[in-house]
TrEMBL record:
In the N-terminal section; belongs to the LXG family. InterPro entries: LXG_dom (IPR006829). This is WXG superfamily protein probably secreted by type VII secretion system. It comes from the Bacteria. Pfam families: LXG (PF04740). It comes from Paraliobacillus ryukyuensis. Residues 2-123 form the LXG domain.
Length: 123
């Protein structure tokens, strides 16, 4: 497998972009939780269908949203860890070479976690 040169500035920019996106997602998930709470507290939303909808929101969304937050937070932490480890332990040169196999392994790990989450969400 060939090695490709990777500009560390691009990697660092990706890391920062990921942090920003995770912060936005975290905020949006907080907004969804607040909206669910508002729906659950609506006095005008009554009856069997309303009770079922409220239970659904509580069971499904209140459990899935923290799971998504955890996945995004872990993804951000993993990216940061890999960047720091690479800079500190492997190569501090800004023109470092990262092997494609390493990137492919990381991509596969992320895809596996995504698939597992998707299966959980589809249940």
């Amino acid at each position: 497998m060939p090695n490709y040169k990777v500009d560390m500035a691009e990697i660092l920019a990706f890391e920062q972009e990921t942090k920003q996106l995770v912060a936005v997602l975290d905020e949006q998930i907080g907004d969804v939780k607040a909206s669910i709470d508002q729906i659950k507290q609506m006095d005008s939303f009554q009856g069997q269908a309303a009770d079922d909808a409220k239970a659904y929101f509580e069971v499904m969304h209140r459990n899935l949203l923290p799971a998504f937050q955890g996945v995004f937070s872990q993804l951000e932490a993993n990216i940061t860890k890999h960047v720091r480890d690479f800079q500190e332990e492997i190569d501090t040169d800004p023109h470092a070479v990262i092997e494609t196999g390493y990137i492919e392994d990381e991509k596969e790990m992320i895809e596996d976690r995504h698939d597992a989450l998707k299966q959980l969400a589809d249940k």
